Amino acid sequence: MSGNSFGKLFTVTTFGESHGPAIGCVIDGCPPGLALSEADIQPELDRRKPGTSRHVTQRQESDTVEILSGVYQGVTTGTPIALLIRNEDQRSKDYGNIAESFRPGHADYAYWHKYGVRDPRGGGRSSARLTAPVVGAAAIAKKWLAQQYGTTFKGCMSQLGEIAVPFQSWEHVHANPFFAASSDADLIASMEEAMDQLRRDGDSIGARIEVVAQNVPVGLGQPIYDKLDADIAYAMMGINAVKGVEIGAGFASVAQKGTQHGDELTPEGFIGNNAGGVLGGISTGQDITVSIAIKPTSSIRTPRRSIDKEGKPVMVETFGRHDPCVGIRATPIAEAMLALVLIDHALMHRAQCGDVSVQTPKLK
Amino acid sequence: MSGNSFGKLFTVTTFGESHGPAIGCVIDGCPPGLALSEADIQPELDRRKPGTSRHVTQRQESDTVEILSGVYQGVTTGTPIALLIRNEDQRSKDYGNIAESFRPGHADYAYWHKYGVRDPRGGGRSSARLTAPVVGAAAIAKKWLAQQYGTTFKGCMSQLGEIAVPFQSWEHVHANPFFAASSDADLIASMEEAMDQLRRDGDSIGARIEVVAQNVPVGLGQPIYDKLDADIAYAMMGINAVKGVEIGAGFASVAQKGTQHGDELTPEGFIGNNAGGVLGGISTGQDITVSIAIKPTSSIRTPRRSIDKEGKPVMVETFGRHDPCVGIRATPIAEAMLALVLIDHALMHRAQCGDVSVQTPKLK
Amino acid sequence: MSGNSFGKLFTVTTFGESHGPAIGCVIDGCPPGLALSEADIQPELDRRKPGTSRHVTQRQESDTVEILSGVYQGVTTGTPIALLIRNEDQRSKDYGNIAESFRPGHADYAYWHKYGVRDPRGGGRSSARLTAPVVGAAAIAKKWLAQQYGTTFKGCMSQLGEIAVPFQSWEHVHANPFFAASSDADLIASMEEAMDQLRRDGDSIGARIEVVAQNVPVGLGQPIYDKLDADIAYAMMGINAVKGVEIGAGFASVAQKGTQHGDELTPEGFIGNNAGGVLGGISTGQDITVSIAIKPTSSIRTPRRSIDKEGKPVMVETFGRHDPCVGIRATPIAEAMLALVLIDHALMHRAQCGDVSVQTPKLK
Amino acid sequence: MSGNSFGKLFTVTTFGESHGPAIGCVIDGCPPGLALSEADIQPELDRRKPGTSRHVTQRQESDTVEILSGVYQGVTTGTPIALLIRNEDQRSKDYGNIAESFRPGHADYAYWHKYGVRDPRGGGRSSARLTAPVVGAAAIAKKWLAQQYGTTFKGCMSQLGEIAVPFQSWEHVHANPFFAASSDADLIASMEEAMDQLRRDGDSIGARIEVVAQNVPVGLGQPIYDKLDADIAYAMMGINAVKGVEIGAGFASVAQKGTQHGDELTPEGFIGNNAGGVLGGISTGQDITVSIAIKPTSSIRTPRRSIDKEGKPVMVETFGRHDPCVGIRATPIAEAMLALVLIDHALMHRAQCGDVSVQTPKLK
Which of A191, A291, C27, D251 has the fewest other C-beta atoms within 10 Å? Predict the structure, then answer.
């Protein structure tokens, strides 16, 4: 209820702050009988973790996960799975100078007015570091969904600032530091140059990320409020720095006509996917396609105007180790959120309609 | 849990189908002591109801609301408020021909696979008619928010298909049938012509809607998952036909730099509102600004390819009375959803931090 | 969240006051495909309704239920089922004299301090009349549970004031006005005489009710907080006038030894049922046995000391039409609550462990 | 949703198993600004912990708590508070012989059928050891309630098997190993002798516990389903081994008349407390009084009949270190559950009715 749990039946409750002793989560509702160990979770955490290229924050965190409960003899028991990640690199002195003032674009001002107290070390609770436990939880969700329905998740960056990244193939995503689905060496080079220039300028940039779920069963989602696409929008907009969410054709729908947008059906399947895999809030079995806008990193090495707690003008400059484009590390996070939405709806559907009705799509 | 309730503390549970005997909702959590009668609710329903211009569906519904409970001697008692709206115009014969097949762009296919049974009359539960009880519930929310904090809601259409509608002033919104914030007679005429042409063509078109909440208290929203913007995205994407949601700068953030996007603060207030009134998931006291994409109406008088329940190819043509642009009537609905999100977070904030901490903004 | 909904997956949200225009509920989460009409619900409402013997309130209410939604062509569609019961006999003048003071044993004092406003007509929201919609909702739950697992529900009065009613057979329950599982004519006569005397004295009396669920699947219930017995205790203690709840051996467990209490198992089944069908919060497949204590009716025709809103002493006497023993009509209500708990846990178990794992007991 | 969280606004999610690496909880919804350190929590854990007298289990656990999050510079920040308790004494070999069979009176049979997999080490998730994190969480709740309203909690054992313990004074509770509110040395000696005899016999015994909350604000509780007494019943019945719950007069209400039970009011206050501090599900400001029945420990050193997973008959004898009367350590647990219920309702009331309406009682 107080906003630190995600999901109703596969419920992930996270805890921790950027520079506290530990971060982690409790996963309640994981079905019993799933083979599980840290080795299933660590690779997903490694995809998200900082310090993997020069274009992301150089904070050093091994993000080593420990399973504290819910697994016995290598199998989930149906009871809560607690994941613990100790914080290692807590150079909070980097942040000392902003404890009394509010960094533009950050949660500082809002937290201060809400709670009357604020943990300023690395953004405290509002840090994107808190996506790590979620990625860990989603690794479990992904494994279960893959086993049950063959569902898979993919994601890529489709735009970095002004640079559009045309989709070529998913296979390229892990061959470059940007999650670009492209093998165009010149394009990648231009992205690297743009990032290097930003770092020199002490500035940052936004990005657009696409994520897709494939082999999704038909029938996931609720009719009015917990529509599958509504829950996806909720999940995505809740990721740090996200300012926009699209499903399927998204904002392009505005200029479309009904004869163009509504995907016709044939005995072989839908002939298009403007819907993005969701009609009336319920999955159709087509690919779920989502696009999100990520704002430029707010922490930049350029002095900016702000005020302190007394309302007096100050200049704020952030010296910490920050991603010049938080979008770069956002792909595994967006995949994770999509997986958490889908497993929750899969369990809900099973409650409502029983096991047998959960099926992989008949049509493509 | 099963997706027919909205909100956690100001909870609206709706019921009904497009052509059943009645639609309505139960509102649980309305604070006691609010003066309330049907006269507070009916005007909002009238803004949304069909048949108000030639550009919207000609279905005849008075949408007369009856309060069944929760009010005693003209004042809310803190117990559930039930709203009942009897359906009047139930010409379900218009829909008979599509009972056995799936209309492209509609929920038919997904509902059928989910539930194994489907009410085909006017789309049943998936009809946009079900937004009426929500608009009724939100009228109560709006009244309470206005009294407590002076919060107000405004909305307009900013794009109709290819036609952009530059914002002039809120005062124009009710002077034309499109909720356009413009007094440009030529522009309005071009919109009317576009709509008339669509009707002649048996086609439909998408739209973009903007909604704004003003005088929002600082501090509404939760840190990680029930972020205010996440809940707004959830609320908006859950409106029928919505395919995209933006907060503040939205997708424009992708091409922005950090020096441009992060709104600086001065003792007089924020110097911009790229944030759209939300930082770190929590309201800043600035205007909450939201933009949504609405797809073209799926029900059109043009024959389209589909399949029937047996998977055999059929042609589907919809003859009912439909809005050629569902976006036209979406403005009061989007305002309503925004109001429901805000009252829920206002009550939650009161639970967490007490009454005195809920304040109108100090800065603009 | 605000306390007017019961159940997480089969969620019943009630509305209405004793003397308002109507009472009713919305049932969200009923599985699709269940044959359903008012004829399935009305008989359960008739078992509970007032005026069926001289020992209960003579208020005249037909309690005629109307299904407003969620059923199409005689079958549930998986969407919310709204039940509406119009109030007919609203002689609120009977209650006029207690609008300004607090009746001893009633919710008046607590409501007034909580909400600052109170509907005094017949107790408003706190009236036991509000159990009617719940009984209606539970009729649907009972039908589904019977079809899925063969689960059945039985209840009887086991004590009326000082008069114990030894259990003989369920078949006698409907052959007397007290839901006594006894054919002992002298015992029934003594109960009638006790009730007549109470009416003459303007007094009231308590009662003990037993309810049993048979053919319950193994495995319903959650490990720590939503234990099946915890949810049963919650459901029962929430019934108007209930002051105590026991599962299985109940308070007799206090004086038992471990060698006596713990039900041994043999290949043929458990050799006793001190557990009441629940171990570790999870159903064992044995009968679920529950006993509840119901306090004497607070509304009596004997003047009693109280205070008014200003804190001044007053005498309060209730002249309305009241049950001298609310326990008499409590049996169908207690059965209803038990059914609602079980269907909720059955759906939850299906979510967690899938369809096939929900089984009828292997052992008795 | 999956039964490992308690509370809606002050939500405690626990994790861990008796013999896993750790147990703990995440507390979401603690108001910001509360001074808090481990020193506030440890004393409550110490009251509950094993090994404090020869009459309880000799398992050695320091139950040392670590706060992982939610506190900055000694003050709660409004974000989740994670508590971690490492398990130290995990002599799971004691339990090896019961991995394949079901101990009578234990959760083994039910868990096995529910999940198809079971952690048999010390009862796994079903162990009463899991009450430790709850007691820790409740220490925080108690501190906040004390500061806000002066609310305090007390508890005692009122019956041990056949031995009734007449209440003398709360001051005696900590002067004997039984939480007896008595200074009667003979009585205490008889209890000690009874316990010693049980240990010699390899048997166990039940107990009755009373808990009281004093200085409770008027107005806590919801009208229909989340009644304060219903939530108390839920909380108490959810404690391991509890089989019955009473509020106020409890089962004695059955034989009471209305003229006797309904507590009259005078300008000085209520003249009795049969209600147990709750009317219509809402607190009246009187003491909340609760009584619970605790069954005899199921783990005893006497061979008992059972079956194994294949349904074949076996004899089961438990050799571990067990409390011969689990009721002895139940008092702090019952207090803890009562505190968690009250803080949740206090926050809920604040959401609904605002800060100023939460008041300490005007009447006693």
Answer: D251
Q: Which residue of B has its CA nearest to D350?
A: B351
With beta carbons less than 8 A apart as the criterion, state whether C234 and D130 touch: no
Enclosing H/E stretch for A279? strand A278-279
Give the C-alpha separation, D83 to B281, whole Å.
Answer: 25
Q: Could you give the CA distance from residue C341 to residue C352 in angstroms, rounded to a whole number?
A: 17
Residue B189 above 60 pLDDT? yes
The dihedral built from the CA positions of residue C235, C241, C243 and C247, taken in this order, carries a sign that is negative
Q: Which residue in the block uniquely carries the two structure tokens 């762009």?
A: B105
Subunits with 3+ C-beta pairs closer than 8 A to D: A, B, C
Tell me the two tokens of residue D227.
């009644």
CA atoms within 13 A on the CB side of C209: 32
CB-nearest to B238 from A115, A225, A305 is: A225
| C237 phi, psi to nearest 5 deg | -65, -20
Q: Residue D12: how many CA atoms within 13 Å on its side-chain side?
A: 30
Q: Return the bridge partners of A218, or none.
A: A359
Domain C5-353 has CATH 2.40.50.140: no
Q: Is the Cβ pair D350, B355 closer than 8 Å?
A: yes
As a residue count, chain C comes to 364
- Using an 8 Å Cβ cutoff, are D152 and D173 in contact? no
Cβ contact C237–D238 (<8 Å): no
Tokens read off for D271: 């003249």
Residue numbers in B near A338 (CB within 8 A): none
Q: Does domain D90-353 have CATH number 3.40.640.10?
A: no
Residues in contact with D116: Cβ distance below 8 Å, sequence separation at least 6, in sequence order: A32, A33, C353, C357
| Residue C114 to residue D221, Cβ atoms within 8 A | yes
Residue of A nearest to B345 (CA): A2
Please, are residues C324 and C203 in contact by the beta-carbon 8 Å criterion?
Answer: yes
- For residue C39, give Cα distances in angstroms to C14, C65, C69, D79, D91: 20, 9, 15, 51, 60
- Chain B residue with minimal CA distance to A259? B203
- Among B86-95, B179-188, B316-325, D163-172, where is mean pLDDT lowest? B86-95
| C200: closest CA of chain D, how far (Å) | 13
Question: Is residue C226 classed as helix, strand or coil in its secondary structure?
Answer: coil
The phi and psi torsions of D81 (rounded to 5 degrees) equal -100, 115
Cα(D187)–Cα(D199) distance, rounded to whole angstroms?
A: 19
pLDDT of C96-136, one tens digit each? 567 889 999 999 999 999 999 888 888 899 998 999 999 99
Distance CA C56, CA B308 (A): 56
C37 contacts chain B (CB < 8 A): no
Distance (Å) of CA A33 to CA A36, A86, B315, D114: 9, 28, 46, 11
Note the pLDDT tens digit of each residue in C172-231: 999 999 999 999 999 999 999 999 999 999 999 999 999 999 999 999 999 899 999 999
User: Does the beta carbon of A223 lie under 8 angstroms from any beta carbon of chain C?
Assistant: yes
Tokens of A282: 């319920």
| pLDDT tens-place string over residues B206-249 | 999 999 999 999 999 998 999 999 999 999 999 999 999 999 99
Q: Which two tokens stand for residue B89?
A: 């115009």
The shortest C-alpha distance from D74 to chain C (Å) reads 30
* H or E element, residue B23: strand B22-28
Which residue from B261, B298, B304 is facing A105, i.e. has the nearest CB?
Answer: B261
Q: Exposed, middle or buried, A96 (CB in 10 Å: 0-12/13-18/19+)?
A: exposed
Question: Could you give the count of Cα atoms lying within 13 Å of B124 in the half-sphere of its Cβ?
Answer: 28
What sign has the CA pseudo-torsion B221, B222, B224, B226? negative
Q: Within 10 Å of residue B40's Cβ, how many Cβ atoms?
A: 17
The CATH superfamily of B93-353 is Chorismate synthase AroC (3.60.150.10)
